[in-house]
Each structure stands twice: as C-alpha cells, then as structure tokens.
Design a protein that fits this description.
Layout lengths: L1 H11 L4 E6 L2 H9 L5 E3 L1 H9 L9 H14 L4 E4 L7 H14 L3 E5 L18 H14 L6 E6 L2 H4 L1 H14 L3 E4 L5 H10 L5 E3 L11 H7 L3 E4 L2 H20 L12 H7 L2 H8 L12
Parallel strand pairs: 1-2, 1-8, 2-3, 3-4, 4-5, 5-6, 7-8
Helix pairs in contact: 2-4, 4-5, 5-6, 6-8
Protein name: Isocitrate lyase/phosphoenolpyruvate mutase family protein
Pfam family, one: PEP_mutase
Keywords: Lyase
Length: 294
C-alpha cells in the first residue's frame, strides 16, 4: 500500500511526475538508480523485449501480468502499468485489474481501442464505442481492492475522430471513475492546452521520440497543466542503439575493448543488480532483505 499511496501523492503534487519506461526488470532498476520516483511498464517495450515483435496486441494478459510482477519485485518505486484494452470486456477487465494489483502494480492503464490494439502513435487504430469503454472503467474501479490503485483511462480517438470526440470521451471516462485521463496522440500544443482546460482529473502526457505529439520538456508540460508524463520507449531505443553500436565494433575489430567506456564495468553492474545485498544476507545480515512496500 505504501507505494500506491506514494504514487497518488506524486500525481497530486504540484510538480509534474516523470515516468520513464521500463521494458524489463533491469531497465526498471536503471530508472530507479537514475533517481526517478516512479516507472512506467511499457507494453510496446514488453512486446519488443519478450517477443521481438511490434506493439500490435500480441502480448496476452498473463504475460503482461508476469512482466508486471518481475518489474515490481525489482524496484522500490511505484510501477504504473500498461494493460492495453484490458484484454476483453468488463469481465476480462475485472480479472486484469485483480491480476495486475496482485502482481504489484501501483496503477493500471486501460485504453479504448478495438482488439487487437496498436501502438498509440501508429496509424490505423480503431476505438470501441465510448460507453463500452466507460463500462470497462466502472468495472475496473469496482474490481480494485486498494483504493489507492490508480486507474488511467486512455482514449485513442483523436487520430481518427478528432479532438472534440477525444475530449468528450475523456470527460465520460472521468465520470466513470478513472483517476487519470490520458488523451493519446494529440497533434498540437493548442490541443494539449485545451485538454488540460476541459479535463478536470489529473492528465498524463506521452512523449514518444518520433511520435505524433509535440515533443516537449517536462517543465513545459507542467505549465500546460499535465500532472504526469511518460517517456515510454526512451530506454528501449537507447539500449537498442547502444547494443547495436557495441556489436558492430566487436564484429569489425574482434574485441570489445574499444567499447569499454560505453559499458558498466563488472563491479558496477553487480552493484546495480543487488549483489552487495545478497552478500550481506549470506553473511547473516538480514537488514538487506527488501520489505513488501505495497
């Protein structure tokens, strides 16, 4: 419960909350080590890292819940988790919420796309009727066991149906019980300002490198009115580029020695993944045992 309460307070605070994306437990540890107060489990990143496939609805609920559990166990900061469409109708959403909550999530994100869904910055996305999504939100609110478990309601209506419909849906999802409203793929700063004038609940922005939404720094998003911002694929793209470059160097030169300055060393990496705590426990010092903060 502690981490969920912490996330709620962070969202309600005056300063905008920055949530970098994590595509696995290791990247989540890096987010925490870099000093961020919360982390976002990206569905795009899970599909890429587990399946090596694009974000087109290939991950099932049990796979995503397992990834949620892995990441939540790896860090001591709140984890906000992408749950796509909830993996079905209201009955499916109830199970999804319970599984994510049991896995250690501090927040769940549900979107109004049809199944199979697509990444929110891809074209060709379709949305379900607004009332159908509102019913899912009501089901999610009823299913959670912890009142501090946040429900993020996302609409993908902007791209195909325009800003008016996207805001209408956002307000409907507010009324249905969502804690945070996420209007995806806004295309201008004026649209972003309008959303924050017309939506009463806290709002979240999505900063995707190369995506459809203006790419703004957190301080400007805060001035516009956002309570939180995710950078869902920053870590994924950075890791892919770094690994590719090191491998190219290894292939060309037959050694990784020339790339050592772009890597953590053996000691640094072992510290990152918690070896010192293991050594303490092995010596009988149980003060290093992590406590369940949820």
């Amino acid at each position: 419960m502690v981490l969920r309460k912490r996330l709620r307070k962070l969202v309600e605070a005056e300063e905008i909350l920055i949530l970098p994306g994590a595509y696995d437990a290791l990247s989540a540890k890096l987010v925490q080590a870099a000093g961020f107060q919360a982390v976002y489990l990206t569905g795009y990143g899970q599909s890429a890292s587990k399946l090596g496939e694009p974000d087109v609805g290939l991950m099932c609920m049990s796979e995503m819940a397992e990834r949620t559990r892995d990441i939540a166990m790896a860090v001591d900061i709140p984890v906000a988790c992408d749950a796509d469409t909830g993996f079905g109708g209201p009955v499916n959403v109830i199970r999804t919420v319970r599984e994510y909550e049991r896995a250690g999530a501090a927040a769940i994100q549900l979107e109004d796309q049809t199944m199979p869904k697509k990444c929110g910055h891809m074209l060709g996305r379709q949305v379900v009727p607004a009332e159908e999504m509102a019913e899912k939100i009501r089901a999610a609110a009823a299913a959670r066991g912890d009142p501090d478990f946040l429900i993020i309601a996302r609409t993908d209506a902007r791209t195909e149906h325009g800003i008016d419909e996207a805001i209408r849906r956002g307000r409907l999802y507010e009324e249905a019980g969502a804690d945070i409203i996420f209007i995806e793929s806004l295309e201008t700063v004026d649209e972003m300002k309008r959303v924050n004038r017309e939506i009463r609940k806290p709002t979240i922005a999505n900063m995707v490198e190369g995506g459809r939404t203006p790419f703004l720094p957190a301080r400007e998003l805060q001035e516009i009115g956002y309570s939180a911002v995710i950078f869902p694929i920053t870590t994924l793209y950075a890791a892919a580029k770094a690994v590719y470059d090191v491998l190219a160097d290894l292939r060309e030169n037959g050694t990784s020695a020339g790339s050592s300055d772009r890597m953590l060393c053996f000691r640094e990496f072992n510290e990152l993944i918690g070896l010192p705590a293991v050594r303490k426990i092995e010596s009988g010092d149980l003060s290093a045992v992590r406590r369940d903060l949820l």
